What we know:
The protein is mainly α. The protein contains nine helices and no strands.
Amino acid sequence: MEPRAEFVHWLFASGVLVLGLIMVAQAIAGQEVWRKRRWRVYLWPSIAFGLGILMWPVMTFYTNSAIHMVAHSTWAQSLMVMGAAELGLAKGRLTSRWWRLAAPIGLAVSGVAFLVHEQNPWFFARSAFLHHLMGWTLVASAIFPLGLVFRPRSSFFRYGFGVCVIALSIMLFCDRDVAAVFGHLSPLAGPPHR
Length: 194
């Protein structure tokens, strides 16, 4: 028996929430304090890479259309490239600051994948609304890691990046297959889940 889609969304929401909390903790502590323990430098890149790996089975076993498979594989690749680039920078194997462009490009591509794969209008159902909202949130939040490329010590961009990731996790926790959004549910969406 295949679990409902919201359980998979909630599992990933938990991972994304941990990722966001670590990013905010890093911004609060500051780079100097955060780097005193070498293992902490690898935390968020490793979690992002791990979430990308875990997205592949979701793409394989929990999708019901080609557009969903393409979207899930895009998210998997984006997470893995972001995580791998940041791991390479943390390890010192990659030295150019331009590798940091993997994060804003990955967020923007992921946001576009959210927007493209949701074929229903905003108020069709809660899942359609949240997919549009998550897509635009990811596209807009790409400005924060882009700012870190040019101002890597900026607390504003670090906080903004972490807060946007936490907001994304909250949106994932709100996701339901068929549920009303603001009291509206399209008659074409089917019976709502409770």
